[in-house]
Input
Amino acid sequence: MLLVYRYRVKSLTGLLNSQARACNFVWNFCNDTQLQALKWNKRWPSGFDLNRLTAGSSKELALHAGTINAVCEQYAKSRRRDLKREGQAFRFAGNTFRVFHSRPLPEGKIKDGTNFSCDARGHWFLNIVVEVAAPEPRPVRNGVGIDLGLKDFAALSTGEKIENPRYLRELAEKLATAQRARKRHQVTNLHARITHARRDFHHKLSTRIVREFDYIAVGNVNAAGLAKTRLAKSVLDAGWSSFRDMLRYKAIAHGAWYEEVNESFSTRDCSSCHAKTGPKGIAELGIRSWVCAKCGVSHDRDVNSAQNTLFRSGHRTPAEGIPAL
Output
């Protein structure tokens, strides 16, 4: 099993910045190509492969063809250098990088694919791919269905509802003021604050769910599709896709079982008798509770959907996949 550990670098960032400016476009392309190969378990591209893939890009990039080839060769050469631990620092390509040791790195083999990345604020991170033994799947003693939403971030089939923190809405006024004043540094910091708060919320909630339940079924709500509607800002603020990714890879790490389930008509179906008597999607989004016209059972809209998600989960196979880099 491959896990990725991300550490913020606190030394030699000037060196990293100068290297990034020198080969930004081509280097990032090479890195993306490598990550796709890693994702699909394909052979990693060599310097020759990268040269072929970048052939003909000289005019558009306004770079000499020889420079592009040199960057590709350097990328392939740098990738082959081993990353070694030195206490709480790491030795790579002849340099020692000290990091903020936010969490311990597990014992395991450091794999090829380790790389550096930079966020919008100019903070550098070392992303370390570690191969560890996959845990045995846990026996399924209790399961949960999860319905992701906007009014509440999530409703569980147990009846529990998780409040939506709405981090973007909380800082929207400050963000708009900074944008109007063209204070780019402040805007960047506010966006980073929102992103970090949302990620922290996702991490804590996903960890709790994975520890409490052996089997997790989540509705496959189309976040990308809803992001094109009038609900776009709320959908992007919720970050459903990131949350599901966390649930998936944490389920793998803890030996839990994970499945994404088709949630079509999960709001309309009565979780007791399965008759389609409930409210219809976005058109009747304001209806939060209803009574089944067939069996008379009273339902909360979101909890009913979560219970249908668990009911529809079908075969219970172990979660598969690795976290995205």
